[in-house]
Each structure stands twice: as C-alpha cells, then as structure tokens.
Design goal:
The complex is a heterodimer of chains A (288) and B (328). With 288 residues, chain A is mostly helical. Chain A is 77% helix and 0% strand. In chain B, helix 6 crosses helix 9 and helix 10 packs antiparallel against helix 11. Chain B is globular. Classes of the chains: A mainly alpha (288), B mainly alpha (328).
Chain lengths: 288, 328
C-alpha cells in the first residue's frame, strides 16, 4: 500500500484535468447561448434604434440616455414600480413569517387532529395551480370590497405563500430537538413564548430560504397583480408596469430594451447575492 | 446537496428537510403528557389560537374557499355583474365541445409534451457534464441556472425582440447568407420559439434536480460496475440512469404542470399569434373571464385544467412507479 499510494496520487490529477478540459469545451457553445441574450439586452439598452437594428451585437456609440429616460418616464415607469413591488414583497414576506411560522410550529409539534387537518389543507393547495383559482378569487375579493386594491393582492399572495413556507418551516422545526421546548415549558414559557423565544431564533436558515424564494416569486409574478389590481388601477408592479409600458411599442427598441433591463436588474442582483438559498430552497420545495 | 456554493450554512438548510428522524412529540408518552399539561391553561389556549388562526383564516378565505366557489361558479351563468344562476353542466359541455378552448388545450399539450422531452434531455446532459467540483463547473451551473429567477414576462419580451423580423436572429442569418425568418408569422416556428424560450428559462432548474439525483447515487454502485468491466455508457445506462428514476418522475410532473399553466411568457413572446394558433389554455380562460364577460364558463375551464393537471400527474407517477422500484 505504501509504495502504491504516491503513484496513484501522482497519476490521478493529470487524468482528471484533461477530462475537465474536454467536457468544458463541449459546453462552451451552450454557455454562450445562455449569455448572448443577456449581453444583447445590456448592450442594446445603451444604443439608438438605428444602431440596434443595424448591428445588434456592436457596442459603439454607447449612451445612458435611453436608460435614463426609461427610468424617469412619466407613464408606467418600471423604476417607480420598484416601490409598490417592494412594499408588496415586504408585506407578503413579513406576513408569511409572522403567521406561517407559528402554524408550522403547531403542525410540527402538536399531535392534535385540527393541526394535522390544517396541514392537509396546506398540502392540497400545492396540487392546484393558483392561477386557475383567479376567477373565484376575484369573486371573493369583490364580495369583500377588496378587488382592485393592494391589500387584496397582498392577502391572496400571502395565502399562496403559506403552503411552501409551512412545509419548509415544519420540516426544519422537526429537526430541532424537542428537549429545548420541554426546557422552556419547565421554565414557564407558554407555547407562544416557546416558539418566538426559543425555536424561532434557531430557524434562521429556513426563514432565509423561504423569504428569498417568496420575495422572488412575488416580485416576478404577473398573473395575480395584472388581474387582482384590476384593469383601471393606477397601481402597478414591475411586471404589470413593463406589460403596459412596452406591450404596444414592441418595435421601439429604445423603449423595450431599457425597460426589460430595469425589470430584471434587481432580480439578477438578488440571484448573485442569495444564490445558495435560491438553489437549495427550490430543491427542498420540490421535496426531494 | 450543495450545488452552487459549498458552505456549511447551505448544508444545514438543505439537510433540514431530510433529517426529520428525530424523536417527535407524537407517540412519546411522557413528553406528550407534559405538553398536554401546558395546553390546559387558558392563556396558553389563547396563545395557540393566536398562532394558528390568522394563517388558517387567510388561507381558508383566499385558497380553500375559492376552490369550492370555483366549482360552484362553473355550474352557473355568472357574467361578473348580475347574480349567478345555476345552469347545470352547460359550461362543461361548451368547454369540452369543439371550439377555442379545446384547440387551446391541444396546442398547450403539444407544447408541453415537446417541451418536457427536450427540457429533460438537455437538463440531464448538463447535469452529467457539470456534476463535478471546481470553479468552472460552479460557474457553468450558475450560467445555466440564472434565467430561472428572471420574470417570465421580461424574458418573453426580450426573446420577442431578438426573434422579431428586425431582431438579432435575422441579422445573424442574413450575415451568414440565409434568408431571414418571420418567426411569429408561422405557426410551426412560433410554437418552436415557445419551446426554445421555455427551455432557455427552465433548463437550469431541471439540471439542478438531476444534479441532486446524481449526488444521491452511491459511489460504490458505480465502482462495482466498473470493477465488473462496464464501460462509461454501460455504467450510465444500467447503473446511474435507473438510480435517477425518481428525479425523472419529479421533473416530468413539475414540467407538465408548469407547461399547462403557461401564460405570461407566451403573452409577451407571441401573444397567441399567428391568428390565435399559439393561444394557451390559461390565456383562453382569462379571455373568457375578463374580456368575453363569461367568468362562469371560465371557472368551468379552470376546473377542467386543474383536473387535467392532477390526472396527468397521477398517471405519470403511477406509470413511473415500476421504474422507481429499482431504486429501493
């Protein structure tokens, strides 16, 4: 063994390096295909119509003018929609943690039948695509006087966020030792107190994953705001804003490209910052 | 489990789902008794109500109730303004008869079947190529994954401008001496563009699920096959691929469900053109509900789509069960 080990160690790196090079080379054209649309988006956001149509790949006569005018435009401007969408995201995420966390705790820890029925209700919603329910949701919101308002949209998005959050949170809580709960109970903590003071501070990774993914879904969602905010609404999110801003002017590239860039930029930044939460969270949501 | 970034934090977050093997309160007699004692005090009972009611009420009102109301509305002639009147199964007869809704189902299913096959082939190939450590593999995974997080409507508009008659695609084609393509004027090319763009956006997600599956394949199995003289293809075909059966199932189920609710990407990319030939089912449902003033009919179409999604998922899961049996 001792005489063989160095030889094997010396051979292995060489072989592995060569294999990586071959594999990577075959992937290069596909990787480029993934990047080219992003490159064209960035570069053409900085060019005049004539330059875009004439040489879409070129990077001459770069100017920030079109980006600036898209960002300061008076009607349906994506940057001013950042505020509304951001508020929506914050409200939905806060509600999801504030209400979804305690329910997940009861579902994970209590054998009582009512919480297990609640769990089944949350699970059943995973199989019904939320978009299909929009017609009856409009019916419900109309009867509550919430149709066409931001609070109505927040409540529907919040309800949509619960199944994933509760699933993620209760799975995480089950991995926390029950002895912690017992110690807290002996020290006089109520169930509510045990959750917020003892368990919740330990749930940071699960909360981060749920918040990042829910923020992403809420920010990117088009169907709910486009229908629940109503056709005559002056409130618009990033996605309904871009729909109204460029839907009719698809051939005016100096409006289209900067608006798309302003829409995707915040999400790209979030992806770069929170990549690991997004990937591991999506995989967990799928249930492995 | 750690894919893009190898940090201890990811590991804990990822393991949380799987490590539910700790002793639970349920079935643990002495512990349960102690727990029960806590619930007896009125303050604690009030605390529990505070913990469960807000989520239960919001979810009940905006997720559970709409399911029941949707079924009720599908049996009425509700027009969005006047009170709804029960009309029996008329809406379902109308939806399932020959017409715009049925043709939208056909085109959506066609896109779904082609899309799922292409997506899985490409996603599996990428996962096999990028299932290794090192900086380049990590960069590659991020590169193929990033469109997953972008808003579909923005992606639809971006690709519309690229594939448009005056777009970048035709500049390249004419440069190379080919005739320019009018993608959105031909039904075949328009369907092709939807498959291409959904592939571009979703392939990273499919890849990540296959990567997770590949990492779960025991190394001993592969080594055993190699010791027995299997070559690379044989090892993949007879050892790795059967182990990936659960990943295939989940990808096909999620892919079909995703394609069946295709909406804003198509709104932005083809807007149903040419001549409504790429109008998806969800586009059709919303058109009936909000443009044609027939929300009752739209509710029935929604029920049909939900049932179709559920039935397809079940059929896939049941037919895949045999292949998955090999893994256990």
């Amino acid at each position: 063994m001792t005489t063989l080990a160095p030889a094997a160690g010396a051979l292995r790196p060489v072989r592995r390096r060569r294999r990586i090079q071959l594999g990577s080379l075959a992937l290069v054209p596909f990787a480029l295909l993934m990047l080219v649309p992003l490159y064209l988006l960035v570069v053409n956001s900085l060019k005049s119509q004539q330059d875009i149509v004439g040489s879409p790949f070129g990077a001459h006569h770069i100017t920030l003018d079109y980006l600036r005018s898209a960002a300061t435009s008076g009607d349906y401007n994506v940057v001013s929609a950042y505020g509304v969408t951001g508020l929506l995201v914050v409200l939905v995420c806060a509600g999801m943690v504030l209400f979804g966390g305690p329910v997940a705790y009861l579902i994970a820890r209590s054998p009582a039948r009512r919480y297990q029925i609640l769990k089944l209700c949350f699970l059943s919603a995973i199989f019904v695509p939320p978009g299909i329910l929009l017609v009856p949701i409009v019916y419900v919101l109309r009867n509550l006087g919430l149709y066409g308002s931001l609070p109505g949209l927040v409540l529907v998005d919040l309800a949509n966020s619960f199944p994933f959050a509760v699933f993620l949170f209760s799975a995480y809580i089950r991995s926390i030792p029950v002895s912690l709960d017992e110690a807290a109970t002996i020290d006089g903590c109520s169930t509510l107190g045990t959750f917020w003071r003892v368990i919740f501070p330990l749930m940071k990774p699960a909360v981060a994953t749920a918040v990042v993914l829910t923020a992403l879904w809420t920010w990117n969602d088009f169907i709910n705001p486009s229908i629940l905010l109503g056709p005559t609404s002056s409130t618009y999110t990033v996605t309904t804003g871009i729909y109204t801003a460029i839907g009719q002017y698809l051939t005016n590239y100096t409006v289209v490209y900067p608006n798309i860039l302003l829409t995707v930029a915040p999400v790209l930044v979030l992806f770069l910052v929170a990549q690991r939460y997004i990937v591991s969270g999506l995989m967990e949501g799928v249930g492995k | 489990m750690t894919l893009m970034n190898t940090t201890p934090d990811t590991a804990t977050a990822a393991e949380a789902g799987s490590s539910g093997t700790q002793p639970s309160v349920v079935g643990d007699a002495p512990r349960r008794r102690r727990h029960r004692r806590g619930t007896r005090t009125p303050a604690d009972a009030a605390g529990r109500i505070l913990m469960s009611w807000p989520a239960a009420v919001i979810f009940g009102a905006f997720a559970i109730a709409p399911m029941a109301i949707g079924i009720y509305l599908s049996l009425t002639d509700w027009d969005g303004v006047n009170p709804a009147r029960l009309i029996g199964g008329d809406n379902y007869r109308r939806a399932l008869g020959p017409g715009d809704f049925r043709s939208s189902l056909t085109i959506t299913l066609l896109i779904a079947v082609i899309g799922v096959i292409v997506q899985n082939a490409a996603g599996l190939a990428l996962a096999l190529a990028l299932n290794r450590t090192g900086r380049f593999a990590k960069l590659g995974r991020a590169l193929f994954f990033y469109p997953v997080v972008l808003p579909a409507i923005a992606i639809g508009y971006l690709w519309h401008t690229l594939l448009d008659y005056h777009g970048a695609l035709n500049v390249v084609l004419t440069h190379l001496g080919f005739a320019p393509l009018d993608v959105f004027a031909s039904p075949t090319l328009a369907v092709g563009s939807i498959v291409l763009v959904t592939l571009w956006q979703q392939v990273g997600f499919v890849m990540v699920l296959y990567l997770a599956g590949l990492q779960a394949v025991p190394a001993e199995l592969r080594q055993a096959a190699q010791v027995d003289g299997a070559n690379k293809w044989q090892t993949f075909r007879h050892v790795v691929l059967p182990q990936l059966a659960p990943s295939v199932t989940i990808n096909v189920v999620l892919g079909l469900a995703g394609y069946l609710k295709l909406y804003e990407l198509v709104i932005a990319l083809t807007n149903g053109n040419p001549a409504g030939r790429t109008k998806t089912t969800v586009m059709r449902i919303f058109e009936d509900a909000f443009t044609n003033g027939r929300p009752g009919l739209a509710a029935a179409e929604g029920v049909v789509l939900a049932v179709l999604t559920a039935v397809l998922s079940f059929v896939v899961i049941l037919t895949r069960r045999r292949s998955e049996g090999a893994v256990q």
